[in-house]
Amino acid sequence: MFQKPFVTKSSQTLRNSQKRKLLAQLNCLNSIKNNAQAVNIKILNHEGVRIDIYNFDKIPLLFQVDGDCNLYPTVYLSWLSQSAAPVLLIYEQVLKFLKNGADLMLQGVIHNKGSLPDFDRKSPIAISYIKDNGTICGPVAIGVTLMSSIEMVANGMKGRGVQILHIFGDYLWFPLGNTEEKEKYEETMEDLVSYIFKIYFFIEIFDKFQLQRCFLAALKFRIGRKFTLPLDVGEFYSHYLLRTVPKNKQIDMKRTRFKKFSKFISDVNRNENGPLLIVACKNKGQISQNFKNFILQFFIHEIKDRSIIKVDVLYSLTEPVMPLFSLLGFAKGNVLTIKELRELIRSYIENLNHDKLVRLSDPILQNVSNRHDEDIDCNALIQSIISRTTKVYSITFPDGRNIVRKKDLPKINFKIEVRSGNKKVTLVNNLEVYGVECARFCQQVQIGAATSATCIKEAPFCEGAQILVQGNQIRFMSEILSSEFGIDKKYMTGLELIPKNKK
Q: How many domains does the chain have?
């Protein structure tokens, strides 16, 4: 039912009375927070069937098919509550047939005498599977029963038993049909369960110690002595502290015991070595660092290896230089680094017993350098030969993929434009050339800079998607690209448009 992309027709936030009426139909009422925001999304699937999806805090937990009185839980909700639906257990080998759209045949159901749960015909059912090592995983699918439990046993557990409506990894699993995430999703079941519990129940992921470490790392390594202080408290929290949080963690200050960032600052300032931050209560509050503090001086931040985007300049061998490099065992089109080229050429020259000045008596050197001087400096000769090769760019992506780009490498271009209402927007071009996923980058900007960011698929003078961000966010985005993606700022243009710090 959700194996292919669907079309969203409308979206409406439910009133509290509507939400209570909806939840009254469930046995797992306690699994959904009372203050969760409920949204009814009406969609049309690829078969033309109208379906209502109910999101709670942006997570799809329920759905209802047009013409069917049943309210079905999603895989998300079946993880949160064991009472969401009765569960059938299957072998792992059967799962691949369900993912391909097949109904569940009863021959694939594991059962012993009296082990089947009680359920009626045309009722919601969840499917879990058992691994070869005996581990039970799931539920991984939601369906509707085609027989009651009594009829299944009476038929000798043969025939079509369950029509699968929703399965782990389909387009309902990724809210609103997020195809990019669906294709790249490779996490384990255990990781997913942990993820759902974190984002839905807001388990306090960060204890005080971890929060302090991020705080100290932001002070010492994100700001540093060279940064112009004082700094706005809100800017420090959103642009510096949050960026030190590990990718698999999250901070929601309102759900910690501090509730407010100002109370956390007061707490960390209570130490025998003096305050870490000096807060001046002007306007929204500004902070200055106390670099002499013992804690800050001796704080060591554990920096783990991170996957970065690496750009290398290489040189492709062309026809004019092949008389020399064919003797060295290379073929046309082979790529070498500048260091390798210099060493190979210098080695050939030294074998001819030349001093610093090279006498071009060797016909091969004359041919590949296109120089006919009697004497030439060795470095000048090497540079002449290298100039007859073609410069190419090797881009290594974080997932290990590598491409060699033979045409010019466009730089990441930042541009400021003024739109209607005298509002400034930042345009970013050519991110995808460097392997940056624009959708994920937009999400980082939205969270880190607290502003809107959108992808424009086709834009002039831009390879790949263009990103449009409200306001001048060049400083923030360039820092993300250099610190988290490892892209050197020499591959960026428009950095001169970064607002100057007010003194």
A: 4
Name the amino acid, one letter, at 187: E
pLDDT at 387 over 50: yes
Banded model confidence at residue 414, pLDDT cuts 50, 70, 90: very high
CA dihedral in degrees (108, 110, 113, 117; nearest 10)?
-100
pLDDT of residue 495: 92
Q: How far is residue 46's CA from residue 5's CA, in Å, rounded to a whole number?
A: 7
Which pLDDT score is estimated for 53?
93
Instruction: Identify the CA nearest to 296 among candidates 210, 206, 234, 215.
Output: 215
| Greater pLDDT, 205 or 72 | 72
Q: How far is residue 343's CA from residue 378's CA, in Å, rounded to a whole number?
A: 12
Residue 220 has pLDDT above 60, yes or no: yes
Give the CATH number, domain containing residue 319.
1.10.245.10
Q: Which domain holds residue 421?
A: 412-497
- Please name the residues in contact with 429: beta carbons below 8 A apart, sequence gap of 6 or more: 410, 412, 413, 415, 459, 461, 462, 463, 466
The residues near 308 (Cβ < 8 Å, ≥ 6 apart) are: 398, 484, 485, 486, 487
**Predicted confidence (pLDDT) per residue in 161-175, tens digit:** 999 999 988 888 765
Residue 337, domain member (yes or no)? yes
Q: Which two tokens stand for residue 303?
A: 């920096």
pLDDT value, residue 21: 86
Structure-token pair, residue 195: 């993820």
The predicted model gives 280-306 an average pLDDT of 43
| C-alpha to C-alpha distances, 116 to 112, 135, 137, 163, 357, nearest whole angstrom | 8, 19, 18, 17, 90
DSSP 8-state class, residue 226? T
How far is Cα 359 from Cα 367, in angstroms, rounded to an integer?
Answer: 14
- The edge-to-edge listing of strands for the beta sheet with 59-65 is 7-13, 38-44, 50-56, 59-65, 72-73
What DSSP line would sit under 85-147, residue for residue? Answer: S-EEEEEHHHHHHHHTTPPEEGGGEE--TT-SPP--TT-EEEEEEE-TTS-EEEEEEEEEESS
Q: What is the pLDDT of residues 96-125, one digit of tens each?
A: 889 888 899 998 898 876 668 888 999 999
- Are the C-beta atoms of residues 376 and 360 closer than 8 Å to each other? yes
- What's 477's domain CATH number? 3.30.780.10
Are 436 and 399 within 8 A, CB to CB? no
Cis check: omega of the bond before 60, within 30 degrees of 0: no
